[in-house]
Amino acid sequence: MATMVLVHGAWVDGLPWYQVVPHVEQLGHTTVVIDRLPSSADDPADVGDLADDVAVVRAALDEAGSDVVLVGHSYGGMVITEVADHPAIVASVYVAAFWPPAGMSLLDLSRAAARAGWFFPTDGDVLAVGDVDAVHRAVAADVDRAAFLPIYQCMRGQSLASWSTPSSAPRRSHPTTYVICTQD
After folding, report:
1. pTM over 0.70
2. What are phi and psi of 125, to 5 degrees?
3. 63 located within any domain
4. Is 184 a domain residue?
5. In the prediction, which pLDDT does 117 show?
6. What stretches in the chain show pLDDT beneath 70?
7. What are the residue numbers of the active site?
8. What do you get for the CA distance between the two ends of the chain, in Å?
9. Looking at the domain assignment, is residue 65 inside a domain?
10. Which 3 state secondary structure label does DSSP give 26?
């Protein structure tokens, strides 16, 4: 069986992954949830960037040992792309995630979303989310609003640096699966 390292997206923490954990562990796998990437915080002075997020995931991979299936959702795809050459990884899974080519940043890949008005740069340091209804429609329209509220309440600022850093997209030597979510 494998160890699944689960990497969350922007603005949130690992909370949504904890709904997945019992199902994965029931199948006999071990799970490691990345609870909080440094690029997301309440205070702009406390936020990290993509490299800081990569360091957290790389440390989790080092600790997990071998036979790791690395799973990233949304912004988490940027992070798992950067560690794709880690020797512990036997497979990567992108769940409605960004999978950048070398030289492309998340900002480059998401210009259309920025025009949609549900996130915007503030003070040049943090990307902030707009009102709850706009965010709900944009990122979780298929989730009941009442179920979305706890996730929204956990949302934090996201560093602009994490979105503007180009991917190095190192070469991987393991299979990769991309899960398309039509209502994500």
Report:
1. yes
2. -115, -35
3. yes
4. no
5. 61
6. 112-130, 183-184
7. 74
8. 29
9. yes
10. helix
